[in-house]
Amino acid sequence: MWISILGCSGGIGPGNRTTSILIDDDILLDAGSGVGDLELQQMSKIRHIFISHSHLDHIAFLPFLVDSIFSQIKTPIQVYGLPETIKALKDHIFNWTIWPDFSELPSKEKPVMQFNEMLPHTSIQIGERKITSIPVEHVVPGVGFCVQNEEGKNFAFSGDTATNDSLWQALNKLSSLDALMIESGYPDSMEDLSKLALHYTPARLADDLKKLKHTPHLLISHLKPGLETEIAEGLHNHLKEYDVTCIKSGDSIQL
C-alpha cells in the first residue's frame, strides 16, 4: 500500500497544500489543494474519494478534480462521506451556483460523480483494501479513516479532531496499527484557541495517546503555517517514546 501525502498543512503558502492523501493510485482521502499537484493522468485514475468532513481545506479541490477529468471518466467517481458532509457538498458546492452538480452531468442517469452516505463504524471494500470510518470530535461532524490492505497492514487518518474517545477505541480494536496520520494544529501556547477550534495541541495529543495500545509511526499533520517550529518542539518534548514525523506535502510511505 502506497500512501502519498499530496497535502497536509493547516494553511497555504509556498510548499504548503491542504489535506489530501492518495492511497495507491485510485483512492483519495480528502480533496484539499494538494490534489492540484497531480498530473491529469494521475487524476483520471482516482475512482473513490472519502471526505472526512465538510471544511473547505478538505474539499476545495473536489470540484476542480471532477471538472478536469470530466471527459475522461467512463464510470462515476464515488464520493463517500457522512450524511451531513454529503448534504453540505450538495447544498453549498455542487448547487449550480457555486459549481455545476456533477452528480447530474452529463445526465442524471449516467453521471460522472456519485455521492454515497457512509455512517460511522462502517466499511467499504475496494479491491483488497478495506476503508472504515471512525467518528472523531470537531466543530462539524467528522470522521477519520482506517485503511487496511490484504496483508493486514493498517494506516489510520484522524481527519481534524480534538480530544475524544471514539478514535482510540476503534484503533484499539485493530490487531495492529502501522502508521497513524494525526493532526496537531496549534502549539501548547495556543491552548484556548485549540479548544475553540477543536484541534489538538502536542500536550493534548500526548494525553490522548495514552489511550492507545499500539505504538505506530506518528505522522503529524495540519500544522498551522508559521507555527511549525513551536509545534514540532512541543511534539518532541511530549512524545519521546514515539517515532514522530511532521509530514510535508510530497512525502510518501509504503506499508
UniProtKB/TrEMBL annotation:
Domain of life (superkingdom): Bacteria
CDD domains per record: class_II_PDE_MBL-fold (cd07735)
Signal peptide span: none
Ranges of residues in domain Metallo-beta-lactamase: 17-189
An example Gene Ontology biological process: negative regulation of glucose mediated signaling pathway
Any single Pfam family the record assigns to this protein: Lactamase_B_2
GO molecular function: 3',5'-cyclic-AMP phosphodiesterase activity; 3',5'-cyclic-GMP phosphodiesterase activity
Gene3D superfamilies assigned to the protein according to its UniProt record, in alphabetical order: Ribonuclease Z/Hydroxyacylglutathione hydrolase-like
InterPro entries: Metallo-B-lactamas, Pdiesterase2, RibonucZ/Hydroxyglut_hydro
Protein name: 3',5'-cyclic-nucleotide phosphodiesterase
Phylogenetic classification of the source organism: Bacteria, Pseudomonadati, Pseudomonadota, Gammaproteobacteria, Oceanospirillales
